[in-house]
Amino acid sequence: MRKDIVLEGLNCANCAAKIENKVNNMEEIESASFSFATKILSIEYSENHGFDNILNKIKKIVNTLEPDVIVKVGDKLDGHGIHGHSHGKSECCGHDHIHGHSHEHSHGHNHGEGERGLLNKKTLKLGIGAVLFFGSFLFDKNINIQLPLYIISYFLIGGDVLLRAVRNIIRGQVFDENFLMALATVGAFAVKEYPEAVSVMLFYQIGEIFQDIAVERSRKSIKSLLNIRPDHANLKTDEGLVVVKPEAVNVGDYIVVKPGERVALDGVVVEGESMVDTSALTGESVPRKIKTGDNILSGFVNNSGLLTVEVKKKFNESTVSRILDLVQNASSKKAPTENFITKFARYYTPIVVIGAALVAIIPPIITGDAFSEWIYRALIFLVISCPCALVISIPLGFFGGIGGASKSGILVKGGNYLEALNEVDTVVFDKTGTLTKGIFKVSEIKVYNGFTKEEVLRAAAFAEVHSNHPIAKSIIEEFNGEIDESLIENYEEISGHGIKAKVNGRFVLAGNLKLLKREGVKATLVNQSGTIVYISIDGKFAGSIVISDMLKEDSVKAIESLRNQGVKKLIMLTGDLDNVARQVAKELNLDEYYSELLPEDKVNILEKIAEEKGSKGKLIFVGDGINDAPVLARADIGVAMGGLGSDAAIEAADVVLMTDEPSKLSQAISIAKYTKKIVIQNIILALGVKGIVLVLGAFGVATMWEAVFADVGVALLAVLNSMRVLKTK
Known about the structure:
- By secondary structure, the protein is α+β, with helices and mostly antiparallel strands.
- Helices cover 47% and strands 21% of the residues.
- Helix 17 links the parallel strand 25 and strand 26.
- The two termini are 36 Å apart.
């Protein structure tokens, strides 16, 4: 079983990691993952354990670690906010969280009051404290006046930090940011660095405010990419139109979509025509024409005409709901880099704190220097010992990449798959519907022994009338005439060969060359690219029909782009005849192709390719997601092409390209590479600056000013840098 729990007001990423770790250690929990971007703790648990019991245990963990966080049983991320049922009152982890009451809650610091009131209150306290602090410089030579001003301004600016530090110590939570800042600044007072103690606390508090604002804005930026959830539906009733929530509409109901409105549910247009904007789902900027009889999906925006739609799926099964669900759940599948940073954060703080203790004690014992000097240097270590810059910015970077990809019509089911796209060296494509349009057309009719093209096409159309195969349909479509089935007798479908029937008194064969040979008809081999249907009438070879599947205009560009991105091998698998596969592979300049494959053959071939490839690099399979589910599952990364509205495609694949453009795969790799680049930048920035300041602090060069910058300043820069990933295309 899976449940989503919202931890509202949890803005401290380091605290979130502790909660996630504790929940994962519960015996009832199979897996737990917290998304800092959405504030959702996703848990998997056995049905044998009651959820209420599990929820109570999680609440106890949260209450012990961060008693002020609100625990909610959450609904899905819907682009407007996260909803849920409240299970407690809360603040947060050491930061003052603002609890707004709007539809999309804005949480900065302290719950229970209005956002503006609390911001003004905190700003006022900081302002008064800052005025008293800077005013103390007027009494430069009078410590009796200066010291009280320092102490008053310190408590005004950092009183809440001290209070939270004391409360956390009582709960057994020593190594948190509040305690470390309190210890560092009180220590500065102890060694008579009064101005530095106050100024560092002031800079820290201002940095925290800006960091929280940046985090909240980044969350909103990501969620705004997913602002595709319809607010309402116009339900058609006997009394007229009634505005209802999309969840209240049933399959078979009729809804009306007015110009400018978002389509609420998947269905079929029964009246009207319009141009619709599909960009929210597909990333396509060109509007699409929709008319009576066409399918229409939730999330589309109606640009012009009035449409009446018969609902075909409930809201929770609709396209827009599935997309939002997928993107939200993506954050629970963490990238290897995220998992590494989470583990790294557990050890980083204790190691730095131990380092601070060693710096404070060992050098003065060895050198005989004053303890106050080395204690001050140790305090610098304490200020830098929170890993928030990493544990905030890296999950935000990956989630931003997933959100940005979804805006382009690319659904990536987890940060693990997004990161894996950086290592692709082999791409295997299905042919029909992936590289080619999958729309078969009669491209040529050849005739022999005095028969006409009309006779050959008519005989083939009558013979193929009972077949659902795309080849048969293309012949019937080309014939475009009325087929009187009463004229067909002795109809027989011969597996692997074709059709044998009596049509209007004449014996007709329609199939491959093996069929005609089996029936003793001498035929001329047609050596041409495409699928060849051989026709015999009354025992004579009448002609052949060449049926071609056209390449997508986008396929050549896609292959070129993948080669430019460093993909080493491009391979095609198909059930088509060898001559057809050879022609397509040649036109696209593919490295290899395998033809005349049955579905089970594709899995065997893919395993063979994987063995030849070795352990380095990732293997992608790109298919339509319907007939290719086993192959999609076997690949390192399964990519479903043209998954718009297809349940099978979305279920089977790790990445879903919502349109029929193979070049979207290249775009997905570009987004993945840009995301990884931003993540690496943040790791280098955070660890680099912290490492430099630690070394400088140990040698007495850096002050606490630099230390605070290495903490909240770097975290702020890393969060802002993470948001650049939203701009990638």
